[in-house]
């Protein structure tokens, strides 16, 4: 059974700092890994998706890496801003079939202080 | 031009009632999902439908019955609501298309916060 763990559970940083969020998963037989952002009382916004054959994806100040063999992914946020404050969720997709589930971690709650 | 929409956004009801949550996507996706986010913010899959057919049915009480009238809609009906059903329910959709750069990316609706009193 796939389990996804995110460390740390909460993180508070001053504005402008670069930071790394960690995600680990127990079963390396994944199809892809997706990072989401969730604002309080809101839905999930997809940030980055990494296919199992890829090692990283970048979007603006965000960079996500994937090391499938060790069961790890990191989300790097450069030059953090107060608007980055949210909960960041990591989720892995089991296999290449329609409808296969995403297994989520519990999230990292990020606060960027002005 | 909302991609995945859910109604209602908030639902407050008494124990024992029956209620429905509706979900619609206009992305042309063929797969839709229901997830439950509990009070500890942990998200867990409940159901998945592909082309109107049930693909995933996790260990969910059979008081929960999903219905997919067409590929763009996946509704969730809950009978005899219990206190423990209070949670935020998220609908999501994706397109199963292997080989594409962003294939299988799941897009989520805004959620329905259900409170059972």
Question: What does this protein structure show overall?
Answer:
The complex is a heterodimer of chains A (about 110) and B (about 120). Chain A has about 110 residues and is mainly β. Chain A is about 0% helix and about 55% strand. Chain A is built from no helices and eleven strands. Chain A has strands spanning about 5, 10-15, 20-25, 30-40, 45-50, 55-60, 60-65, 70-75, 85-95, 100-105, 110-114. In chain A, the strands form two sheets. In chain A, strands 2, 4, 5, 9, 10 and 11 form a six-stranded mixed β-sheet that branches. Chain A has a five-stranded antiparallel β-sheet with strand order 1-3-8-7-6, with no helix packed on it. Chain A is globular and about 40 Å long. The mean pLDDT of chain A is about 90. Chain B has no helices and eleven strands. Chain B has strands at about 5, 10-15, 20-25, 30-35, 45-50, 55, 65-70, 75-80, 85-95, 105-110, 110-115. The N and C termini of chain B lie far apart (about 35 Å). The model of chain B has no long low-confidence stretch (mean pLDDT about 90).
What would you say about this model in short?
The complex is a heterodimer of chains A (114) and B (117). Chain A is mainly β.
* Structural Rg of chain A: 14 Å
Tell me about the largest β-sheet of chain A.
6 strands, mixed
Largest interface: A-B, 27 and 33 residues
CA distance, first residue to last residue of chain A: 41 Å
Key terms for this structure?
heterodimer, A: 114 residues, mainly beta, six-stranded mixed sheet, five-stranded antiparallel sheet, globular, B: 117 residues, seven-stranded mixed sheet, 11 strands, 0% helix
List the helices and strands and how they pair.
The complex is a heterodimer of chains A (114) and B (117).
Chain A: E1 4-7, E2 10-14, E3 19-25, E4 32-38, E5 44-51, E6 56-59, E7 62-67, E8 72-77, E9 86-93, E10 102-104, E11 108-113
Parallel strand pairs in A: 2-11
Antiparallel strand pairs in A: 1-3, 3-8, 4-5, 4-9, 6-7, 7-8, 9-10, 9-11
Chain B: E1 4-7, E2 10-13, E3 19-25, E4 31-37, E5 43-50, E6 53-57, E7 64-70, E8 73-78, E9 87-94, E10 107-108, E11 112-116
Parallel strand pairs in B: 2-11
Antiparallel strand pairs in B: 1-3, 3-8, 4-5, 4-9, 5-6, 7-8, 9-10, 9-11
């Amino acid at each position: 059974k796939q389990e996804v763990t995110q460390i740390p559970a909460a993180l508070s940083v001053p504005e402008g700092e670069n930071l790394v969020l960690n995600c680990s998963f127990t079963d390396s037989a994944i199809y892809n890994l997706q990072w989401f952002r969730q604002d309080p009382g809101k839905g999930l916004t997809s940030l980055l998706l990494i296919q199992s054959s890829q090692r990283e994806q970048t979007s603006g100040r965000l960079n996500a890496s994937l090391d499938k063999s060790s069961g790890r992914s990191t989300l790097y946020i450069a030059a953090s801003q107060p608007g980055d404050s949210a909960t960041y969720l990591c989720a892995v997709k089991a296999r290449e079939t329609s409808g296969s589930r995403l297994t989520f971690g519990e999230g990292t709650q990020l606060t960027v202080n002005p | 031009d909302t991609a995945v929409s859910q109604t209602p956004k908030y639902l407050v009801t008494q124990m024992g009632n029956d209620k429905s949550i509706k979900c619609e996507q206009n992305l042309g996706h063929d797969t839709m999902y229901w997830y439950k986010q509990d009070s500890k913010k942990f998200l867990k899959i409940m159901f998945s439908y592909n082309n109107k057919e049930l693909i995933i049915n996790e260990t969910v009480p059979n008081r929960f019955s999903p219905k997919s009238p067409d590929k763009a809609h996946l509704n969730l009906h809950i009978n005899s609501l219990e206190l423990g059903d209070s949670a935020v329910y998220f609908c999501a959709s994706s397109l199963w298309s292997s080989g594409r750069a962003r294939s299988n990316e799941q897009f989520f609706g805004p959620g329905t916060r259900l409170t059972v009193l």
